[in-house]
Design goal:
The chain is built from four helices and six strands, in the order ααβββαβββα. The protein is an alpha+beta fold and about 160 residues long. The longest helix is centred in the first third of the chain and has 16 residues.
Amino acid sequence: MFQSSQYTGTKEENYQLLIKQLHALCTGETDDIANLSNASSLLNQFLEDVNWVGFYLWKEDQLVLGPFQGLPACVRIPSGKGVCGTAVKERQVQKVDDVHSFPGHIACDAASRSEIVVPMIKQNEIYGVLDIDSPTVSRFDELDVKYITQFAEALEDYI
């Protein structure tokens, strides 16, 4: 689950520690880009079997690429298009076990096989999404959904 040797507990304990580290990184910093950058780096450093971790920000009625770790990505995604646009339109987490079976999937990285996208909402408005891709089918389980959602919600306090 986690790459770092400091994460030696259960999967839940490791996620809880990761969220504490997010708070430590973001406390006192008011710049959104700095906090999003550190958050994407933190997730990318510690999650195993992922090939893209990052954010798309809601601007001008579309998602625009924000801070990320991974290969170059799609720059703009309309609401309702692909996994990220669907997360925005439905305002719900999207956990896709096989992106090739997702209608309208946008293939930014051909190696991606599964994906989780968490919509980020501030003051009842879409702020953007946290997007994590994996080269492995069915990489994400319900515990990942729970804690990646909590990670995104914790980050919302700093953006």
